[in-house]
Amino acid sequence: MSATSPTDDYEFTCPQCGEGFAVNDGMRAAVLERGCPICGSPTSTEAFAPCSA
Amino acid sequence: MSLDQQTELSPDEIREVLSRHETGVLSLAKADEPYAIPISYGYDGESGRFYLRLVSTPESEKRQFLTSSPRARLVVHESNDGSYRSIIAEGTLERVDPDELTVERIVQYGKAKRPLFEIWGETKRDLDIQLFELDPETLGGRAVELDAAESDK
């Protein structure tokens, strides 16, 4: 589990490589468009869970 | 071949060569032991940074050389009809932790091809995929043009 900051809105977990990290709205959009930055696999909205406050 | 047929590439020419390729040879060293591997890379022509996604396993030789911030050289070369070009980038290979990802980095790693030379025989969950950036301290390129008679030899 990665550390989150007040600007992080989601926790991303790649279904292919299992890597996870916190993202904000802009990063979420980039991951959805470009794929998981770690392994390069395509992603979907299901890979994002809202960060608990 | 005379020396005047070898020329230095301009920054724009270097950027063009690096942008139209996606593979090169990365060289690392540990004491006096060399290590060189073919890798794929992404290159951002604006920042001049290379983005690399390297795969290793705990037992792999590569892991031994990917210590914290190793010195590295990246060589990219091409040849075409008697024209030979090579680029050498040298600097410190910086590991990028997933918590250090930004929109810009996600975009750049998205452009970087998957490791074309890596054979992923195991599932991705069993592999250690690490992100690295190389911001070259030195970057140079050279071109050699052979005349038609010499290139036909």
Automatic annotation (TrEMBL), chain A:
<dbReference type="Pfam" id="PF24441">
    <property type="entry name" value="DUF7560"/>
</dbReference>
<protein>
    <recommendedName>
        <fullName>Zinc ribbon domain-containing protein</fullName>
    </recommendedName>
</protein>
<dbReference type="InterPro" id="IPR055982">
    <property type="entry name" value="DUF7560"/>
</dbReference>
From TrEMBL, chain B:
<protein>
    <submittedName>
        <fullName>Pyridoxamine 5-phosphate oxidase family protein</fullName>
    </submittedName>
</protein>
<dbReference type="InterPro" id="IPR012349">
    <property type="entry name" value="Split_barrel_FMN-bd"/>
</dbReference>
<dbReference type="Pfam" id="PF12900">
    <property type="entry name" value="Pyridox_ox_2"/>
</dbReference>
<dbReference type="InterPro" id="IPR024747">
    <property type="entry name" value="Pyridox_Oxase-rel"/>
</dbReference>
